[in-house]
Amino acid sequence: MINQLQVATGFYVYSFLRSKDGESISSEKLKGIEDAEITVIERGGLAVVASPIVPKKIRPQRKFLAAHQEIVTHVAKHWSMLPVSFGLIADDLDQVHHILDKNHDILIEQLDRVGGHVEMTIALKWTVPNVPQYFVDRYPELQAARALIVEGRASREDQIEMGRIFESLLNSERTAHTQIFLDKLSPIARELEAQPNRDDADVMRLACLIHRDREDEFTAAVYQAAELFTDDFAVTFNGPWPPYSFVKLALSME
Fold this sequence. Notes:
Structural class: alpha+beta
Order of helices and strands: EHEEHEEHHEHHHEEHE
Number of domains: 2
CATH topology of the largest domain: Alpha-Beta Plaits
Strand content: 15-25%
Mean pLDDT: 89
CATH architecture of the largest domain: 2-Layer Sandwich
Radius of gyration: 24 Å
Shape: elongated
């Protein structure tokens, strides 16, 4: 049986970077998806970090996702790069060259913006057992509305109004608490991007673009902000990651 990689003509793409960094990446003999050796394809001052693959749609299986993330994260730790989302396959070398030629200016522009930077993520959550009850206990207007409901005297409009008040107070507190982190992190981060909250317990989710040399400063600033919160809150942060949240690639493949 012939090994798939022996007939591979396509290239699975992990990231873009400047060609000057290509040689040092190639020398590391990294292995990517399907245990194929990483190669760097250079053209016009740019380069693609890729590995050979039979041109096909690849499924997001755990082993493939892990291999993709391992390569992208490794490259991001050492070189200025633009990460590519899972699943981009060029049919052949000519298509790789075409991608670099057709998207040259946007790739250079984004490399200039995020070069040398990594992404850190921060989450702030309420740790109380019941967030709506936590707000009722602290705000008289919610206590009065809840009393009407408990006594059976609340109309449908009263119940809707209570929900509106809760949402307003929830958003107001989220904004105030988020601002504490923004004040601490803005001098360090090149860019900050709010991420969607997943449930009522989420106060804030932030993606932060920082220079890789400022990670210690960033960590210290997070701790300074966290000290301003009571035990009703929990702060978590992770990274460094490839700057996915700050790279917007709409590549022309044609």
